[in-house]
Amino acid sequence: MRIAATLLILSGIAWAQESLAPELQPFKRLFGSSWLLKSSENRFPERMFVDPGATGGHVRFRSYKARRGDDFLLDETYVFWHPGEQKLRTLKFFKGGAVAWGSAATEPETIRLDRPTVGLRDEYFFGNRKKGAFTRMTSLVIKDLSVPQTHADGRREKTGPGQGSVRNRNKSAQLAPVARLIGRWDTNGKGFTGRHEYSWTASGRAIASKTFMRRGEEAERLLFFGLHYWDPAQESIAILLLRKGRVSLGTLKVDGDKWAYAWTTHAAKGATKVREAMHFPDKDTHVCAIEVARDGKWVPVGETTNKRDTQAKD
Using one digit for the tens of pLDDT, what is the confidence trace for 230-239? Predict the structure, then answer.
């Protein structure tokens, strides 16, 4: 998917890597630590890790359990600011393949994640916070594992981020057509070059992408972060593209070596409809032609040729 070319052509996006979006700043207090979630209802304690997206456009929550020395990913949630709706939105991937859209809200001492479609709410309350601890949904006590934890018998718990060896086990069968993108692709377009990196994420329930671009002699910059995932409600492959100040939502239809993307990019100045036709002349090459909607017509804005980097490691 060569949406990066469209973003470059349409808006002349600033190339410097950006800091976290202002709307996501309250989440910074969760960064850099692995949080232990204890509950009398859970036989195996959960661990939670929160990190920022490199483009400044999203925050990711990951919850997992440690079993037999291996980390078992339970769910993965992306939080981002939707400029069109003027609110924080969430997309959560559950164990088993379920997907849930929701919203988020922040207050001085509270972060709340709501997923009304599945009747869930996570509330992180810092009001009575002690060093390295806070409460979630009142029934869970969360400890910062970066602070050494000592048991009554003197044993010390493992500390640090501790994500362990999270594996992408049950890869989504519906994403099999997109899996041919896994790896690195080098891009050539008019006036710019770039690369795209694709990898499995969310324990095999989504494919993540990073797009890097370079103009002339300028340094290469990360342009945006993307996700391909299966939307069971729409029974189709969906895409989500995130960058600070911009959100793109759309679909992908696959017909053998011919792919058709359609999405809408939301920004502060409004929304833009885009479509992209992509075809594979051979297994290591694909060509993309991009059009945008203007005054009721589809207008060509660019074409790219993309070659797989067969030397790069997946």
Answer: 998 889 999 9
- Residue pointed to by tokens 């959560």: 92
Tell me which residue of 106, 81, 76 sits closest to 91, measured CA to CA.
76
Verdict on whether the full-model pTM lies above 0.85: no
Q: Token pair 């479609």 is at which residue?
A: 117
Q: How many CB atoms lie within 10 A of CB 309?
A: 14
Sign of the C-alpha dihedral, residues 63, 68, 70, 73? negative
The CATH number of domain 22-144 is 2.40.128: yes
Q: How many CA atoms lie within 13 A of 266 on its CB side?
A: 17
Residues of the chain with CATH 2.40.128.20: 3-17+169-308
Asked if 203 and 77 touch (Cβ cutoff 8 Å), the reply is no
Whether the per-residue pLDDT at 33 is higher than 80: the answer is no
pLDDT tens readout for residues 20-31: 999 999 999 888
